[in-house]
């Protein structure tokens, strides 16, 4: 019988704690976490007797038969409010000292610890890779400076091998660096260029299960022929040749096994590093490294899904390729980790004859500029490893895991930017640039205009060199604190990559002259009679409804003004958010006044001597004073709870504190 009685006591105690927690949260008017509220109520339940005992002792000895009914009721009310007051104080102190989210919960703490251990293992793995390839001294900043060419070649080879062993994320880094001749010596650029088409392939024993799972059956049943030796290997996957049962030659791109978990760890490291640099460095905040890291992470995530690449391939092909050919995907056979597409017959573009280089570079530049400025769907990673010289002498563009997209307004702003650059108009270039990127509040437009004028004089004047043009433009944008949206960053990166590719295709290529020629052709297309007629028709169709209503509205306004009935109505607090904000503010003021009034009345009653005794030496005035003092404390705590609570949504008045959000429309790598 002792066990049921003890169980009943525990159940009653639990219900009392839950009731105490509910009452404290309702009186504070703020939602707290369940665990935090329960712990506060549990602590209050344990502290109730030590806290209330001195209060009861101060009231003197009381005989049960001497307690009037009013005194018993007041005493009961005082004790109940004191018990509820304890968890309220604990919750408000916790809100002020330990805000929600500042200390992780048990589950979050376990996940964080597991994530830290996982990242530590990855850091250790990366360090071991660097040391194995002889790069350990350079990680510690003690590496010797290498001046001779043979030493640079050996160091570049070690760096390339280390990046290759590091995995997808580091291979991508090497690919980007291989196009930056303005940053790295030629030995490093040439060596890192091998990462684009000479990554170590995965063995067939690891690739075959991925193919069978993606294709839904054995490779021998799906294809008439399949080459087990890969045609090429890249950072994300490797390409095999195959032939369908219809006789068509195809290439099959299969994802490397097990890269998903490694990429997730690397991207987590990239995000944390970007957040640290943005918070602790001025240049990191100016560049918006968090957004760039998120864009890179989203891009890599999409690149791991070959269905996205197949859709990108179809979208770019639909925009028109001009003199560039795109492989057609076999959509029905494409899965998340397997991509089947048309095989283009050709060889690496780096083997193109020198005399053919200018024509290939001109066609590639025209194709990419048209994709960016006209179609709005562009290949965001045009490095040499993604290009082929086809048997018919044209270019073939591969690897559509990296595709950017621009909406009509962004394309229009970029078009104005290009045309103003063509005219060498600093004012027009500045205005167009501030339409492309968000305009800061404290930007010095005159200084920006002068910087852009100097930039154009350096790169666009007669006989000037266009090397590092896009790099210098990016530096100007960063120096003036312009936060680049992800889709524009993808454009800049694609153009910077294209710059390095064009130099490899045709050394000395006149990038400025060809870009101006494209601008002239595009401008001629825009001012042709057909396009002008179409634009006027569209504008007139949009204006006609407004023009039809305009005379009647003007007549009504003139008539009202003539007869003295013209008036204007302004609706204050018409927005629900404004009303909610003002109402909450009035509530806080009212609670503060009531709490202060109750406190003053409590002090006055406690200072009054005499009065009818109700509990030992305690008079009725003192009992009322104690109750009012507790009520004042509850009201003040309710106000403090709202003050200490960190804002979680923009419920304030409209126009104050609103933040801009930029669409992550690009998928550039």
UniProtKB/TrEMBL annotation:
The GO molecular function terms of this record are: kinase activity
List UniProt keywords, sorted A-Z: Kinase, Membrane, Transferase, Transmembrane, Transmembrane helix
Q: Where is this region: Disordered?
A: 648-669
Q: Does the keyword Disulfide bond apply?
A: no
Q: Which residues cross the membrane?
A: 6-23, 35-52, 72-94, 589-608, 620-644
**Source organism, top-level taxon:** Bacteria
The record ties this protein, via CDD domains, to:
ABC1_ADCK3-like (cd05121)
SUPFAM superfamilies from the entry? Protein kinase-like (PK-like)
Give the matching InterPro entries: ABC1_dom (IPR004147), Kinase-like_dom_sf (IPR011009), UbiB_kinase (IPR050154)
Which ranges carry the ABC1 atypical kinase-like domain? 194-429
Q: Which PANTHER family match?
A: CHAPERONE-ACTIVITY OF BC1 COMPLEX CABC1 -RELATED, PROTEIN ACTIVITY OF BC1 COMPLEX KINASE 7, CHLOROPLASTIC
As for family, the record states: Belongs to the protein kinase superfamily. ADCK protein kinase family.
Q: What is this protein called?
A: AarF/ABC1/UbiB kinase family protein
Q: What is the lineage of its organism?
A: Bacteria, Bacillati, Actinomycetota, Actinomycetes, Streptosporangiales
